[in-house]
Design a protein that fits this description.
The structure holds two protein chains of two kinds. Chain A is an alpha/beta fold. Chain A has 18 helices and 16 strands. In chain A, the strands form four sheets. A five-stranded parallel sheet of chain A has the order 3-2-1-4-16, with helices on both faces. In chain A, strands 6-14-7-8-9 form a five-stranded parallel sheet. In chain A, strands 10, 11, 12 and 13 form a four-stranded antiparallel sheet that branches. In chain A, helix 9 runs parallel beside helix 18. Classes of the chains: A alpha/beta, B alpha/beta.
Chain lengths: 459, 275
């Protein structure tokens, strides 16, 4: 029987002009009816390629079938068996590069909106409230360093099997990049808290204000625990290294987003100050750059531009984020690279840029940007946000010589995610350098598997 | 939550807080700092560790009431709790390679040099200490320094106590005699800059402890960046101590003032003062 062509069910969104002035979520989520209609588009492939595209191998056709049949609790169980944070993943995973890219429905019309249906199920589970789960202890103990995506995933997988889990978080709030980095309008913090609570409901405990490498050392953890997982992320911001970068008004995206998200500076009565620039330039074109630009807009900027040295095709951000940013009125200044930041009385007021053209492909496979001689020009900016990526925080490696790292500072692990120290595992950005939430979750899950195997726990 | 075990007013606008934080105390070393938040809505503010007691599990900080959050902290009484207390952060200051050390403290900077003076005495290398303040009321830890220092020299800008003048006046006399091979200066940036400019003339190694704005204190935000010898360093993970002769002081001082206007508005809301 031929499949009738039916386009994807679009998720409702806030109006671009309205949402540019608020921190409410941009995408509003499926209704029950939309979710079921979309789930019915799944062709229930016998050999589902979509699952191969998922770093945590969510059983996609199974949960789609459950949603199509209005069995949302079942759908939740199926997803949660391999993915502890469905509401997060449904929102921030680059599905178009993963599951949806491989979806065979694309040959008929368009791929199934897998992320949107996953988000619906995740939110359905959270709406029912978090229940404490009784799990029989297995007698083993594990320490988890950090509480971002890789750490939470590893913690959940271990706790589910009765491992006594202690999470050590440097900040006063859990979630890592989900909390300090990704803004409220893309990933509401109440939802992140609920997802974390559901991990803690499995019995994992969290210890805040504990900087591993300073307050506690890896050696102390290996003395006390049967296994240690390091999921400390890549928190160190990169700057351009151009003159004037230390002028007031120039921030790393990490600082700007941390002030706004983690410290809540978007609320008028917040004690943490944040600069509210009128004319904001964001350097870089990844997801973090889009987040920073759209945040600046919501913080009252009159004009926000993305400045990127390559072209439109080379921008590393998700298409959806770029589209949303453009809809909201962010200007894209492409093939343009700042060479100096200029200021007055210690504050930035201009960027001196050079025009670029694309040459031969470089090591990353993207065409190398080359400056055009004599093309320098200046643009006004009273605030500059540098969003050029991050590298792993050296605090842990500096305090533990035995821990082997690459020249870039990332931790070296074997196939089972074990570091150079026995029973010490690592995953996420601490190993790969800055990457995605879901890749970090995949790594946390993989490490948990090795740890459980070591404990003699199979399922 | 961390309990304030002891609170003592040392000067009209400075309090000493002894805070229960056993994990921090266990790892504390002179020169390191902590970050605290007064309450759930509070900002993260850094303070250098002034003293610590591993057995009692306490860490002492001196806090000058200069802005919204420090005024809020001053409202918490002895026995009360603050929301967060994290550390010890930064790198410890190690002066053991030097033989004749002078520690110079200005105002609240005495908080940083005190643990150093105590430590140097404990290893038999007692240092000279010069403490300066605007006026008599602002001289802190005099008794403590009498015990920990080899010689203690006090100055007040207005001459209300001991010697009228600046710490640099005293320091210059000793540098003239070639008495020191290392100076550590901690205090307001203009004072540290003045000391560094002076010691440069005598080619004496000078360590300063920078106190820039910070958010996380673990190298994550880059807010605390300082130009040292033409390179950008993060005070929170690379410091807070740096070679005083290498610092770009003009830039550091400009960066410190980044939020002055916002801060003023916030303080007014707390104290009801008119702007």
């Amino acid at each position: 029987m031929a499949i009738v062509k039916t386009p994807r069910n679009k998720m409702p969104e806030q109006d671009p002009i309205v949402r540019g002035h608020n921190f409410e979520e941009v995408a509003l989520g499926y209704t029950k009816e939309l979710a079921m209609a979309e789930a019915k588009r799944c062709m229930q492939c016998k050999n589902p390629l979509c699952m191969k595209g998922c770093p945590v191998s969510v059983r996609i056709p199974e949960f789609m079938k459950a949603v199509a049949e209005e069995r949302f609790d079942d759908a939740g169980k199926i997803i949660k068996s391999t993915n502890s944070l469905p509401s997060v993943c449904g929102r921030v995973c680059p599905q178009e590069e993963q599951c949806e890219k491989l979806c065979l429905r694309a040959r008929v019309d368009e791929p199934v909106s897998i992320g949107a249906v996953e988000r619906f199920v995740g939110d359905y589970l959270l709406s029912k409230g978090v229940k404490e789960e009784k799990i029989t202890p297995c007698g083993k103990r594990a320490a988890i360093v950090g509480s971002g995506p890789s750490a939470l995933t590893c913690a959940a997988e271990l706790a589910k099997r009765g491992v006594e889990v202690d999470i050590y978080e440097a900040f006063h709030k859990a979630g890592g990049v989900l909390t300090y980095g990704i803004p409220e309008f893309r990933l509401p913090k109440a939802l992140v808290k609920n997802e974390i609570d559901s991990v803690l409901a499995l019995g994992a405990k969290i210890h805040f204000n504990t900087v591993v490498g300073k307050t506690l050392l890896i050696d102390e953890l290996t003395d006390k625990y049967d296994a240690v997982f390091i999921g400390s992320g890549a928190g160190l911001p990169s700057f351009m290294g151009v003159p004037g970068e230390n002028l007031n008004g120039v921030f790393s995206a990490n600082e700007y987003l941390t002030r706004v998200n983690l410290m809540g500076a978007y609320k008028p009565d917040c004690a943490t100050p944040v600069m509210r620039g009128k004319n904001v330039a964001v350097i870089g074109a990844g997801n973090v750059a889009m987040d920073a630009a759209r945040t600046a807009l919501r913080m009252g900027a009159e004009h926000v531009s993305i400045i990127y040295r390559r072209g439109r095709e080379e921008m590393p951000a998700r298409k959806e984020e770029i589209h949303h940013a453009e809809q909201e009125g962010i200007e894209f200044k492409l093939l343009c690279n700042p060479v100096e930041m200029l200021g007055e009385n210690g504050w930035v007021n201009k960027l001196r840029c050079v025009k670029m053209e694309l040459g031969e492909p470089d090591a990353s496979g993207r065409r190398r940007p080359v400056p055009i001689k004599g093309s320098e020009f200046e643009i006004d900016a009273d605030m500059v946000i540098v969003a050029l990526g991050t590298t792993p925080n050296p605090l842990i490696k500096d305090s533990c010589e035995k821990l082997a790292t690459n020249p870039k500072g990332t931790l070296i692990v074997d196939e089972g995610m074990q570091t150079s120290i026995k029973n010490v595992y690592a995953g996420g950005d601490a190993v790969t350098g800055a990457a995605t939430v879901i890749l970090a979750m995949g790594a946390g899950r993989k490490a948990s598997r090795t740890i459980l195997d070591g404990f003699g726990i199979t399922d | 939550m961390n309990r304030i075990v002891k609170k003592r007013r040392l000067a009209p606008n400075v309090c000493e807080y002894v805070v229960e934080a056993p994990a921090v105390a266990a790892k504390a070393k002179p020169g390191m700092f902590i970050i605290l938040r007064v309450d759930e809505e509070g900002e993260r503010i850094p303070f250098t560790i002034c003293d610590f007691d591993i057995a009692a599990g306490t860490v002492t900080v001196l806090v000058q009431e200069v802005g919204y959050s420090t005024l809020k902290l001053a409202q918490v009484e002895e026995g009360g709790y603050i929301a967060d207390f994290v550390g010890p952060l930064g790198r410890p200051t190690d002066l053991t390679e030097y033989k004749r050390i002078c520690l110079v403290g200005g105002g609240i900077g005495t908080a940083v040099i005190y643990p150093q003076a105590k430590y140097l005495k404990s290893i038999g290398k007692s240092a000279d200490v010069i403490v300066g303040a605007r006026t008599k009321d602002l001289i802190m830890y005099e008794d403590e320094f009498r015990k920990a220092a080899k010689n203690l020299y006090l100055t007040t800008d207005d001459g209300s106590y001991v010697r009228k003048g600046f710490v640099t006046d005293v320091l210059k006399e000793h540098l003239e005699k070639g008495e020191y091979d290392c100076v550590m200066a901690v205090g307001p940036m203009p004072m540290m800059r003045a000391v560094a400019n002076l010691t440069k003339e005598y080619n004496v190694k000078t360590v300063v402890s920078m106190n820039p704005l910070m958010v996380d204190g673990t190298g994550m935000c880059g807010c605390c960046r300082v130009s040292v010898g033409g390179k950008t360093k993060y005070a929170c993970v690379d410091g807070p101590e740096f070679d005083g002769h290498e610092i770009d002081w003009a830039e550091a001082m400009a960066r410190l003032g980044a939020y002055k206007a916002t801060e003023k508005e916030h303080v007014c809301r707390l104290t009801g003062e008119k702007r």
